[in-house]
Amino acid sequence: MTDTKPIRGTASAVRRTSDASPTKSPEQARDPTFVPFARPDIGPDEIAAVTSALQSGWITSGPQVRAFEARVAEYLGGGVECVAVSSATAGLHLALEACNLEPGSEVIVPTHTFTATAAAVRYVGAEPVFVDVDPQTYCLDPRAVERAVTERTSAIIPVHFAGRPAEMDAILGIAERFDIDVIEDAAHAFSAAYRGAPIGTLATAATVFSFHATKVLTTGEGGMLVTADAEIAARARTMRSHGIDRDAFSRSARSSWRYEVRELGFKYNMTDIAAAIGISQLARMKELRARRLELVERYAKGLRRLPLSLPPAPQSASSHAWHLYVVQLTDDARVSRDEVVDRLRERQVECSVHYVPLHMQPYWRDLYGLRANDFPHSQRLAERSFSLPLHTRMTDADQAQVIGALDAVLGER
């Protein structure tokens, strides 16, 4: 939540990114100077993999899904099991369902997140409890978490915002003390690590990744539930496919049509077409990650003199996935965030905002009576932050245009 070149596979290919001529987006076809906020980095290997899947005669959940699950598990290490799903939202729902929360129990979530984090809690009949983020990390504030714990608290969902791991030692300590499950919303964080351990291998009930089109690894739409708990993995596999004990591929492989519906399940399976893209993307992760880091370093150098707070660095011995590059206007900026985004658009640079937090969204605000004053750090982010284009199909010239446009809008103070 993944984007720059059709060339792939070697370090030299990464260096040639700035000279590559990727297929133009509709906006760029109209104006070649337009820099989109995000673009998926789909090259010939992904296209060939999809073609092969289409020609195989098996395009829904089958051998490619199983291969993708196995390769992600190998990539992460730590003896985890992987369950491929149709989206990270589906993965969060399955993870919460597998934890067998009591109806009406409470799950602590940050207000500064996408709606799916809290929606999955409601799906299982539990109630989200919204807390503020740490202004130094933009992730769930452990101090706010501890204050929010009650006798009804059953789980905590930290969000690794923008790809930076949350302060997991503190969160896991709280969870252990109060006997609470932790489910990591790692939609932004595939390839990140916390104090040397890959996200997905920490001592939590489950971790959920997103492979949406904008993510650091994409399958178009899709996600992955990762867990070291065999019971959670088994439950998720059953529930992702209508609660049936064996999926269609297993029945076909065993030449048996028989199956049993064991639970009232869901339709959350990933297709082989999507998994084929994911396998090719995973083979390119070193290349894709290297380019993101290169772009991040160039932003850090090019923006340091502007009235911006740059993204918070990861913890010691940790690594950032850099799904998003979120900057925040400082107090001496003379324009508002909305004005900056509008003026950048006039200069052919598309930005986004992550997020309009949940305490400002009508559904959550009205249902739970949420007030901006209760979430001052998230509120400040909502008013001052915006996300710059960061994707691996950006050329060096694209990034120079972004930096130049920011300098024009913010340079005179």
Would you list the SSEs in sequence order as H and E? HHHHEHEHEHEHEEEEEHHHHEEHHHEH
Mean pLDDT: 92
Structural domain count: 2
**What is the helical fraction, as a range of percent?**
25-40%
Label the structural class: alpha/beta
Number of strands: 12
Number of helices: 16
CATH architecture of the largest domain: 3-Layer(aba) Sandwich
Biggest sheet, in brief? 7 strands, mixed
The N- and C-terminal alpha carbons lie at a distance of: 33 Å
Radius of gyration: 21 Å
Question: What's the CATH C level of the largest domain?
Answer: Alpha Beta
Q: What are the SSEs and their pairings?
A:
Blueprint: H1 11-15, H2 26-30, H3 44-56, H4 63-76, E1 81-85, H5 88-98, E2 106-110, H6 115-123, E3 127-131, H7 142-148, E4 153-156, H8 168-178, E5 181-186, E6 193-194, E7 197-198, E8 206-210, E9 223-227, H9 230-239, H10 248-253, H11 272-283, H12 285-303, E10 308-309, E11 325-329, H13 337-346, H14 362-368, H15 376-384, E12 385-388, H16 396-410
Parallel strand pairs: 2-3, 2-4, 4-5, 5-8
Antiparallel strand pairs: 1-9, 6-7, 8-9, 10-11, 11-12
Can you tell me about this structure?
The chain has 413 residues and is of the alpha/beta class. The protein folds into two domains: 155 residues, Aspartate Aminotransferase, domain 1; 238 residues, Aspartate Aminotransferase, domain 2. The chain is built from 16 helices and twelve strands. A hairpin with a 2-residue loop joins strand 6 and strand 7. The longest helix is centred in the C-terminal third of the chain and has 19 residues. The N terminus is likely disordered.
